[in-house]
Amino acid sequence: MGKVIVLDHPLIKHKLTFIRDKNTGSKEFRELVKEVSMLMAYEVTRDLPLEEIEIETPITTTKGQIISGKKLGLIPILRAGLGMVDGMLSILPAAKVGHIGLYRDPETLKPVEYYCKLPYDIEERELILLDPMLATGGSATAAIDFLKEKGCNSIKLVCLIAAPEGIDAVQKAHPDVDIYVASIDEKLNEDAYIVPGLGDAGDRLFGTK
């Protein structure tokens, strides 16, 4: 079974509080999501392999470690996942970025795919799937399904907040995928929104309703 890693660093907790606050405007909301995503990138990439090289400092020669040629891919689920890309790229500037467009049918609550554009060598990359909210788990599960159909076998899911129901759904469908979250919230309400949650992440990022 994939791991569920809660990133409870004080800086993340602090910023997440203001992300949740309904009085936080779109500009501040975007900045905070970017900052939290950047902080989460450290933990998400903790297991990247290293190799030793020799360099010259101004004083002498020494050995140091660099990341061992691991190819990374960032895959935001449109549109809310876009808010997490810049923060991740600030730490992982060499990562390629793909996009998967999904929306939730308001009646069936099932995900519907409407767009997909991925790097040409997607199957060779370690993928970080980005979506601020893991609610029912339907969109994340569908996105992982699609990536696996394309030959991807190394996928991590990164979300700001998650409902237990969403975590369970992803783990049942994809037990090999690790899930990284800043908070596991209480539950879903009758409209499939996370409680206490932060509202609709896409609307709050882009100032829409």
From TrEMBL:
Allosterically activated by GTP. Its cofactor is Mg(2+). Binds 1 Mg(2+) ion per subunit. The magnesium is bound as Mg-PRPP. Uracil binds at residues 194, 199-201. InterPro entries: PRTase-like (IPR029057), PRTase_dom (IPR000836), Upp_B (IPR034332), UPRT (IPR005765), UPRTase/APRTase (IPR050054). It is an enzyme of class 2 (transferase). GO terms for molecular function: GTP binding; magnesium ion binding; uracil phosphoribosyltransferase activity. Residues 6-208 form the Phosphoribosyltransferase domain. Pathway: Pyrimidine metabolism; UMP biosynthesis via salvage pathway; UMP from uracil: step 1/1. 5-phospho-alpha-D-ribose 1-diphosphate binds at residues 79, 104, 131-139, 200. GO terms for cellular component: cytoplasm. It catalyses: UMP + diphosphate = 5-phospho-alpha-D-ribose 1-diphosphate + uracil. Keywords: Allosteric enzyme, Glycosyltransferase, GTP-binding, Magnesium, Nucleotide-binding, Transferase. Its EC number is 2.4.2.9. One of its GO terms (biological process) is UMP salvage. Belongs to the UPRTase family. Catalyzes the conversion of uracil and 5-phospho-alpha-D-ribose 1-diphosphate (PRPP) to UMP and diphosphate. PANTHER family: ADENINE PHOSPHORIBOSYLTRANSFERASE (PTHR32315), URACIL PHOSPHORIBOSYLTRANSFERASE, CHLOROPLASTIC (PTHR32315:SF4). NCBIfam families: PRK00129.1 (NF001097), upp (TIGR01091). HAMAP family: Upp_B. This is Uracil phosphoribosyltransferase. It comes from Keratinibaculum paraultunense. The lineage of its organism: Bacteria, Bacillati, Bacillota, Tissierellia, Tissierellales. The gene is upp.
